[in-house]
Amino acid sequence: MRDQIILNNTSVDITDVRGWYIAGTYRLxxxxxxxxxxxxxxxTDAYGGALATIAPNQDNTALPTNHTYDKxxxxxxxxxxxxxxxxxGHFIEGYANAGYPAGxxxxxxxxxxHAAHKRPGDQDRIQLLN
Length: 130
What we know:
By secondary structure, this protein is mainly beta. The protein has one domain. The chain contains 2 helices and 5 strands; from the N terminus they run E-E-E-E-E-H-H. Strands 1-2-3-4-5 form a 5-stranded antiparallel sheet, with no helix packed on it. The longest helix is centred in the C-terminal third of the chain and has 7 residues, at 123-129.
């Protein structure tokens, strides 16, 4: 837990950041490994003093603004002794952007990757995918 006094001691921001992960791999043969991992990151903010009158507490970790859950599938191919190629597919839920620097993704992207890479005339196709 991180406790921070801000605005000339008129307000308090208490931030609680928690995270964990689990990972595993399975070697199919000498050159190929399959793997997966799951990570969970949550953040809450509680405000006190003057800041509490204008900023609501962010204490519901079920909201996408307060968590990032990442499910990952991986394939690793060993090409030579010191050379390998690894592919990862991430399935991320949430963006954990509650006033604390975390993550890489903009919080205003409700359509996901389809909306981010939209071309003219793609609106009907994007609506079908969502």
